[in-house]
């Protein structure tokens, strides 16, 4: 699998965010997207996820499912954790798993992110770090080859960051690929970097 961008351009609110952007990332690789605030890191991820229109250039995926779009083969983990506070931890994960076409079994994913003991707790009572862990569990509950992670370590303590690094390493070793917008290292060995913003 290979995701390639050629001459990619992004316009938001009538302002050109970036143009002429090119990169390629293959299965088993992680590409870190860095740059100053406003350089377009989140916009780039949202573009790959199909949430922002491509203003120029093209995005192509080879070696994936020819019957599905890039967005349908990708997980997008944004700044918002997108949880329903009145639903329990397990119910939130079940909802997202069904929506994303994954398994309805929640025990395994919740155990992997350290939330098994909180499965029946309403999400309203979770801390910011626990909410982030629950969002990460979506990556495990519904298998998709492309992970688009926007500041994935936000609100995570050191243990949570190690947990995330392990999840990413396993995803890559299974042939998945990762694009991650970040201001700091993610603990993924061999990750490449692309920096947005000419004056970043």
Strand order of the main beta sheet, please?
Answer: 5-6-7-3-8
Distance between the termini: 30 Å
Mean pLDDT: 92
Strand element count:
8
Poorly predicted segments: none
Radius of gyration: 17 Å
Task: Enumerate how many helices there are, as a single number.
Answer: 5
Amount of helix: 25-40%
Question: What general outline do the C-alpha atoms trace?
Answer: globular
Global structural class: alpha/beta
What proportion strand? 25-35%
Q: Write the element-wise H/E pattern from the N-terminal end onward.
A: EEEHEEHHHEHEE
The largest β sheet comes out as: 5 strands, parallel
Sequence-ordered SSE layout with sheet pairings:
Layout (H helix, E strand, L loop, with lengths): L1 E11 L2 E12 L3 E6 L5 H8 L7 E7 L11 E4 L11 H12 L6 H6 L15 H14 L4 E5 L7 H16 L3 E5 L10 E5 L4
């Amino acid at each position: 699998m290979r995701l390639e961008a050629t001459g990619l351009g992004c316009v938001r609110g009538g302002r050109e965010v970036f143009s002429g952007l090119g990169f390629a990332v293959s299965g088993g690789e992680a590409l870190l997207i860095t740059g100053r605030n406003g350089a377009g890191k989140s916009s780039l991820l949202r573009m790959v996820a199909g949430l922002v229109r491509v203003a120029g250039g093209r995005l192509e995926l080879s070696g994936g499912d020819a019957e599905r779009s890039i967005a349908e083969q990708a997980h997008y983990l944004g700044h918002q954790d997108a949880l329903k506070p009145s639903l329990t931890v397990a119910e939130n994960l079940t909802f997202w798993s069904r929506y994303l076409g994954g398994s309805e079994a929640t025990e395994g994913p919740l155990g992997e992110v350290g939330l098994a003991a909180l499965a029946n707790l309403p999400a309203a009572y979770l801390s910011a770090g626990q909410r982030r862990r629950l969002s990460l569990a979506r990556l495990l509950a519904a298998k998709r080859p492309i992970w688009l992670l926007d500041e994935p370590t936000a609100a995570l303590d050191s243990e949570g960051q190690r947990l995330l690094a392990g999840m990413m390493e396993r995803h890559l070793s299974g042939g998945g690929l990762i694009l991650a917008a970040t201001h700091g290292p993610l603990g993924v060995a061999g990750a490449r970097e692309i920096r947005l913003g000419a004056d970043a």
